[in-house]
């Protein structure tokens, strides 16, 4: 999980995902209005015995997965904000 990494690395990974057309927000995968309870249910399923998440060299909890999903969504939404353009006529 990248949530504890340098902001520059997070931005680099985000930009790579955008550049190749990967979804970068929950809305991009049809989950714009997903609740915390729904995300936690998915996180719990991803942490079930036998899931590949347990291949990580550290313990990952459903709460950590939920928090990482929200954090990644926030990064994606921040990156998608339109840049305000101001036209100035002199």
From TrEMBL:
GO function term, MF aspect, one: glycerol dehydrogenase (NAD+) activity
Stored SUPFAM superfamilies: Dehydroquinate synthase-like
EC number: 1.1.1.6
UniProt KW keywords: Metal-binding, NAD, Oxidoreductase
Cellular component terms (Gene Ontology): cytosol
PANTHER family: GLYCEROL DEHYDROGENASE, GLYCEROL DEHYDROGENASE 1
Name of the protein this chain belongs to: Glycerol dehydrogenase
Organism: Salmonella enterica I
């Amino acid at each position: 999980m990248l949530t504890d990494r340098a902001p520059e690395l997070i931005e680099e990974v985000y930009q790579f995902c955008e550049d190749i057309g990967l979804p970068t927000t929950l809305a991009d995968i049809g989950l714009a209005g997903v609740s915390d309870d729904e995300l936690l249910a998915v996180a719990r399923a991803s942490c079930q015995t036998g899931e590949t998440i347990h291949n990580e060299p550290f313990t990952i909890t459903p709460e950590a997965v939920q928090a990482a999903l929200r954090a990644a969504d926030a990064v994606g939404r921040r990156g998608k904000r339109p840049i305000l353009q101001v036209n100035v006529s002199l």
